[in-house]
Design brief:
mainly alpha, Cyclin A, domain 1, 2 domains, 13 helices
């Protein structure tokens, strides 16, 4: 008898309503709007660090989801206790370590030292040095050893908070499979099919920055279907007239919610950047305390 397929590999543990309603950060006095900004800043920092380390996008995306999971719920981490830069670094280091592209602690810490310095492109122009200043992100041996200890300690805190559940299934490959199933991704790519696939993946990547934490509240299959729906409408590809999303176990109500959520991400990101115009979102505990 053939073994039954393991469907758990295509799903993720989702956040509960209770976890989404209250967080440790809010209990520690962080306003919800600032908490959303801190999550966004942490995701941006993780993305930038992954790019500088030349990690594949799927590894970076998994690290961002792990970062989000840590700060969810009253039993999770708090931005006032666990610095987002440390949790971001630990999430990326841990995710890369169990992949085929592990990174050394020195490489990770050098990148984060640069990205949190005054020279960083993540800083607002008014806060960035006129000329690159290597001294602002140079890690001496003593500083490196201290930062390494913090990184490894944060990794252990992260693992305990997640109950050692580090599995993250992404919707990207599922979305491409669904496109093939729907017959709109032929073996020989066309201009329109290429554009459709690109826009689908773009929506999924943008969704990683959603303030609604869509990757923590919905399964990969639902995210893939919503991204396909939006991309097909934008590119002008006509899908089957039947309610095709039900084939992938997604109902109309969930699809509608995700279409609105994914579709609003770009506008929210622009608004978030406008909110911090002229200054940077806090990346360290000291900066957060100053902001509060």
């Amino acid at each position: 008898m053939a073994p039954e397929p393991d469907v758990t590999s295509l799903s993720n543990p989702l956040a509960t309503v209770e976890q989404l309603s209250t967080s440790s950060s809010q209990l520690d006095g962080v306003p919800p709007d600032l908490e959303n900004s801190l999550r966004f800043a942490g995701a941006q920092l993780t993305q930038a660090a992954g790019i500088l380390l030349r990690l594949p996008q799927d590894i970076i995306a998994q690290a961002i989801v792990i970062f989000y999971r840590f700060y969810v719920g009253s039993e999770g981490g708090s931005f006032r206790i666990n610095a987002l830069k440390d949790v971001s670094a630990a999430s990326l280091y841990m995710t890369a370590k169990i992949s085929f592209v592990p990174q050394s602690t020195r490489s990770v810490l050098n990148v984060y030292a640069y990205l949190t310095s005054s020279t960083s492109p993540l800083r607002q122009p008014s806060e960035t040095s006129a000329k690159p200043n290597p001294e602002s992100y140079y890690l001496s041996e003593g500083s490196y050893q201290s930062a390494r200890a913090t990184l490894l300690q944060t990794e252990s805190i992260l693992l305990r908070a997640l109950s050692f559940i580090t599995q993250v299934t992404l919707p990207h490959h599922l979305a491409l499979t669904y496109l093939q199933t729907l017959g709109v991704l032929p073996p020989t790519p066309t201009v329109k099919s290429t554009a459709l696939a690109a826009r689908t993946l773009a929506y999924l990547n943008t969704g990683l920055f959603s303030p609604q934490l869509l990757y923590l509240t919905h399964q990969p299959s639902a995210l893939a279907v919503a991204a396909i729906y939006l991309a097909a409408r934008e590119v002008g590809v006509r899908l089957t007239s039947a309610e095709w999303w039900e084939v992938f176990d997604v109902d109309r109500e969930e699809l509608g919610f995700l279409v609105v959520g994914l579709g609003s991400c770009e506008g929210w990101i622009k608004g978030e950047k406008g909110r911090w115009l002229g200054k940077s979102c806090p990346l360290t505990l000291e900066e957060l305390e100053t902001e509060l």
